[in-house]
Amino acid sequence: MSSTGFNSQNGAGGQPYANGPSQNPVALHPSGPGYNMAHQPPYNPTQVKGPMPPGPGLYNSGPYQPVPLVGSYQAPPGQPMLHRPSMGPPQPMTPPQSASPGPGLRMPPAQATPPPPVSANSYYQHPPSWQYGAPPPIGAPPSMAVPQHGPVANHVTSSPSPAPPQLSVGYNAAPPAIHNTMQPLGPPATLQGYTQPGSAPPMNSMVAPQSYQPGMRVPIAPPPTMRPTPPPTGTPNATPPPPLVPKTDGHIQTPGNGAPFPNSLDHLETGHTMTGPAPPPGPPARHMGQSYPALPPGYQNTSAPPNASPMHHPMQTPSQPYSHAPQQYQQTSAGPAQLSPSLAGLSLQSQTPEALRVVNLLQERNLLPPGPISPPTPCLPQDLQKINCHPEVFRSTLTSIPQTQSLLNKAKLPLGLLLHPFKDLTQLPVVTSSTIVRCRSCRTYINPFVSFLDQRRWKCNLCYRVNDVPEEFMYNPVSRSYGEPHKRPEVQNATIEFIAPSEYMLRPPQPAVYLFVLDVSHNAVETGYLDVVCQSLLENINSLPGDSRTKIGFITFDSTIHFYNLQEGLSQPQMLIVSDIEDIFLPTPDSLLVNLDECTEMVQDLLKSLPHMFGKTMETQSALGPALQAAFKLLSPTGGRVSVFQTQLPNLGVGSLKSREDPNQRASAKDIQHLSPATDFYKKLALDCSGQQVAVDLFLLSSQYCDLASLGCISRYSAGSVYYYPSYHQQHNPAQVECFQKDLKRYLTRKIGFEAVMRIRCTKGLSIHTFHGNFFVRSTDLLSLPNVNPDAGFAVQMSIEENLVDMQVVSFQAALLYTSSKGERRIRVHTLCLPVVNSLSDIFAGADVQAITGLLASMAVDRSVTASLSDARDAMTNASIDSLTSYRTSVLTIQQPGLLAPACLRLFPLYILALLKQKAFRTGTSTKLDDRVFAMCQLKYQPLAYVMLMIHPALYRVDDLTDEGALNISERTIPQPRVQQLSVEKLSREGAFLMDAGSVIYLWIGRNCNPNFLTQVLGVPSYPAVPQNMTMLPELDTAESQRTRAFIGWLREQRPFFPILHVVRDESPLKASFMQNMIEDRTESALSYYEFLLHIQQQVSK
Amino acid sequence: MAFTFAAFCYMLALLLTAALIFFAIWHIIAFDELKTDYKNPIDQCNTLNPLVLPEYLIHVFFCVMFLCVAEWLTLGPNMPLLAYHVWRYMSRPVMSGPGLYDPTTIMNADILAYCQKEGWCKLAFYLLSFFYYLYGMIYVLVSS
């Protein structure tokens, strides 16, 4: 970070402007002098405790005179500081000091909440899943429930006043801050500005290009969207400007004024002070100066300056949401206590929140929701929740964090985070700025959950250090206004990307470098994969991410290593063979990696000839180890990506492996051996690669055992990915070929980040226990990721080291620093904020069953490698037993017979059973070792959404698709059939069923399937005519066909890889794999769902 | 009072235990550094791994010496540690080189905590045995 920011803080008036704001001279121009004074008031210790209502002068306008142009102001009418205050909720209950003007209802807060509903949606791509997305107008409490998911939300709602009180504090505060700034403008002007609150000029226009980049991929949403637009800000403004002006000293304000303007800054700060992790009331007060607001938050605004009120109302009326607001807040003000979620829960125990509704699993058969399961919403004040990180990117297993480790232990639920940090986002704000504002002690990036003590200081939400706001940060490029640090995009978005200045580079950003290492032994040529790879590369050679520096190279290997000299000027690619595999060396270090732009033709030549070059090879050995060493040597000066294509067990040179699998043991073995690597060669090489920023992606195409457990290490520790195509063959297995083609296309063209590191920070008191995924852990909170790709997910187990007693919320921040393929250093920051609770029932109410299952799966994979598979299976079963036992004994007040679970965990036993029957963990069914290990890899590094489909596939009935309840996406109608239970009893011979298992989709056709479906969708006259290996639906021009294809297409679009479609009928060989996914049914070796429930019940009631 | 072989064994054990104490301290510091982010786990494992076998061998060495001089009472408390060392080395992760510590798993909170605890326990054990050997040496010298 540049120090400038910090220096300037004290700053003499003139200079500071130079930094940020200068771009917008007009706006800023004003007075140096005023500037100095700006924050002084608040600091003045003398004023500390005065209950005096903060006069308008407090933040005297003087300083900020630079006065954001009125015009610009209106655009981002976001409330200042809105969210900040809420951070520290409950305590805010300031002692109702006498001073309080009396509970009038002025509607201060109203403005705060109302997110312009529309805008919210724009944020992420899929509005439906985006909870914050369509927040109903803030309106009344009920609105909170609206977000689809019931559980948590309901929980909240149940209490008459959700989190409001705090909010209200915050809100109150907010307006004042704004208005102060405005004041200098003179009343008339300001008014005008406000009158148009709604109009949000397209942000681009407002953007000062230098400082704020609209975003590489998508321009930031217009400012208004980012924040709730509070048109009514006007209120405060209404206040008589004249008096203010004179008081440059602001804070000294006359008591008289104070009364009329209760809103002023002080409140703002009060909000903050409260927010802190229980900052003792005293100290904060100091900052604020006089402002310890005497009134309970709800009341503060009530005393409206008489003159103000008239203006106020008119303004508000236009926007509906606001008008509602007042009542809402009134309610809230009633009981501060209700703020804290737990309290709320307790007080209303009579109405149990939906998430805690008791479900008797043995009686309620159909627990699956009809559609996708949405994650619970953290029980946060609405304004915080709105800006919280999207659950697809960042979610926690417990959306309410227990206060102590012992409480967590009691709940018997795992605490952890699941991340998908590099997910392709459709809307991502990108900020360019020379100073990236971070906490000076813990280096946290400024985020929406920090609190601003005043305009010049912010308090870190992770370590609670008070930091200065650098001068540059005072200028808001979005609104082109000055003095509103809380409206900067960094503070408005929980997911944001920075373009990093040079301090974030250890060396100049590396170019994109791609090296392909291809197995060309006899076995490899037999499978015919070379054709596909070369063809794919030829097609996508121009869409490889990169810039003019992009480099590419090729190595092939069998029992020797072949390099290709592709240097410009040669008439054709030159193959260099190194047969000394014991001591590998690079024949011509300079010309093996060539610039893609300059040598495209040569590369194309090579790709065209490569498939035929080895057509007659009789070499059966494979020296993968030496080839990897060569690749490492080649890339170590730059770093980059190695894509290895391997088709057999490496059996020559270092890293050669022996077959460890005994096929006869596949089904019978009590415990599965050989899940851990046979040699550490690949691991060590991966660590070397990681040190040199080289990632290795492994494509395994093989019909035989390849010891993925050992080979996989090369990708696992170098942050690569593993793709596995069992029994790949060009002719014999066209479905695999198609899948390979699609995957390869995605692989070649997807985004990529080089030389990346990801650090996960969390609020003091929490610590990271274990990471899951593909990476190397370089220190307790730092992952080294030579490459990062958009399809990689991570999981983190957390532990609570110190009690979080004084905290209302905790935050987690994942910062991913990477070099884009264009050679830019970028930082993507995700911040998640979650409430802290102290009762078991609240913990259960906030449990996210999918995240828990995902984390448990990762933990179980570790367990099966370090201990044994049966251990891992027991651990998973015990996890469900323990948590339900804990629920039964500690939360349930009334003991009933049956297996009782809270509604939010009702699917937990089902998911655990599904895990036990998953390829990775199943026993008793013949499972190839490589298949199993691959499933384990996937469980660890796939993002949660895909993991869930792997664990519990979705089954739909598709022979009777209708447009009822269909989605409409870009003029396509996508039917939304109901998700069925995975039980054969749900299948009917008359129907056709689609099973979406993540990486594969099965379409099962019943023997007596509706002939209409056969002809209209499959294009065959009768059931026997359904081809054996059908993998594609014909494009028929019938409504049924269109619906089915639209639905399948929609399912495929939702994931980055390409699931193949298999049409399955009774005689198909794939019927077995289809039926294996019927996890609710009994198999020879595994319990049915009902039996499993009985087993759990038995254990629970012991 | 005579300088017997037993006395020599005790003296040697005394010196070697002092060395082991340093090993234990070194381990504790190393793991603490890991925990506080000062060191890269790869480097740290590379420095620690070569020390593991020497430590075990030193311990085995004076155990054998005590065996030779039939100091059963001294040998007794050392046997569990010897057994532990054997078990620990047998159950080490797959590694081509000598040593115990795998940089890819060492940062796991459980393993790190275990290693630290192991270091402290060993330090305590070596310290106690250091004084015991001192006593034993004097006792042997005086009594014989």
UniProtKB/TrEMBL annotation, chain A:
<dbReference type="GO" id="GO:0090110">
    <property type="term" value="P:COPII-coated vesicle cargo loading"/>
</dbReference>
<feature type="compositionally biased region" description="Polar residues">
    <location>
        <begin position="1"/>
        <end position="10"/>
    </location>
</feature>
<dbReference type="GO" id="GO:0000149">
    <property type="term" value="F:SNARE binding"/>
</dbReference>
<keyword id="KW-0813">Transport</keyword>
<dbReference type="Pfam" id="PF04815">
    <property type="entry name" value="Sec23_helical"/>
</dbReference>
<dbReference type="InterPro" id="IPR036174">
    <property type="entry name" value="Znf_Sec23_Sec24_sf"/>
</dbReference>
<dbReference type="InterPro" id="IPR036465">
    <property type="entry name" value="vWFA_dom_sf"/>
</dbReference>
<keyword id="KW-0931">ER-Golgi transport</keyword>
<feature type="domain" description="Sec23/Sec24 beta-sandwich">
    <location>
        <begin position="753"/>
        <end position="837"/>
    </location>
</feature>
<dbReference type="GO" id="GO:0006886">
    <property type="term" value="P:intracellular protein transport"/>
</dbReference>
<feature type="domain" description="Gelsolin-like">
    <location>
        <begin position="974"/>
        <end position="1048"/>
    </location>
</feature>
<dbReference type="Pfam" id="PF08033">
    <property type="entry name" value="Sec23_BS"/>
</dbReference>
<feature type="domain" description="Sec23/Sec24 helical">
    <location>
        <begin position="848"/>
        <end position="948"/>
    </location>
</feature>
<keyword id="KW-0963">Cytoplasm</keyword>
<dbReference type="GO" id="GO:0070971">
    <property type="term" value="C:endoplasmic reticulum exit site"/>
</dbReference>
<keyword id="KW-0472">Membrane</keyword>
<comment type="similarity">
    <text>Belongs to the SEC23/SEC24 family. SEC24 subfamily.</text>
</comment>
<dbReference type="InterPro" id="IPR007123">
    <property type="entry name" value="Gelsolin-like_dom"/>
</dbReference>
<feature type="compositionally biased region" description="Polar residues">
    <location>
        <begin position="316"/>
        <end position="338"/>
    </location>
</feature>
<dbReference type="Pfam" id="PF00626">
    <property type="entry name" value="Gelsolin"/>
</dbReference>
<dbReference type="InterPro" id="IPR006895">
    <property type="entry name" value="Znf_Sec23_Sec24"/>
</dbReference>
<dbReference type="GO" id="GO:0030127">
    <property type="term" value="C:COPII vesicle coat"/>
</dbReference>
From TrEMBL, chain B:
<dbReference type="GO" id="GO:0016020">
    <property type="term" value="C:membrane"/>
</dbReference>
<dbReference type="InterPro" id="IPR003377">
    <property type="entry name" value="Cornichon"/>
</dbReference>
<feature type="transmembrane region" description="Helical">
    <location>
        <begin position="56"/>
        <end position="75"/>
    </location>
</feature>
<dbReference type="InterPro" id="IPR033466">
    <property type="entry name" value="Cornichon_conserved"/>
</dbReference>
<protein>
    <submittedName>
        <fullName>Cornichon homolog</fullName>
    </submittedName>
</protein>
<dbReference type="GO" id="GO:0016192">
    <property type="term" value="P:vesicle-mediated transport"/>
</dbReference>
<feature type="transmembrane region" description="Helical">
    <location>
        <begin position="123"/>
        <end position="142"/>
    </location>
</feature>
<comment type="similarity">
    <text>Belongs to the cornichon family.</text>
</comment>
<dbReference type="Pfam" id="PF03311">
    <property type="entry name" value="Cornichon"/>
</dbReference>
<keyword id="KW-0812">Transmembrane</keyword>
<feature type="transmembrane region" description="Helical">
    <location>
        <begin position="7"/>
        <end position="29"/>
    </location>
</feature>
<keyword id="KW-0472">Membrane</keyword>
<keyword id="KW-1133">Transmembrane helix</keyword>
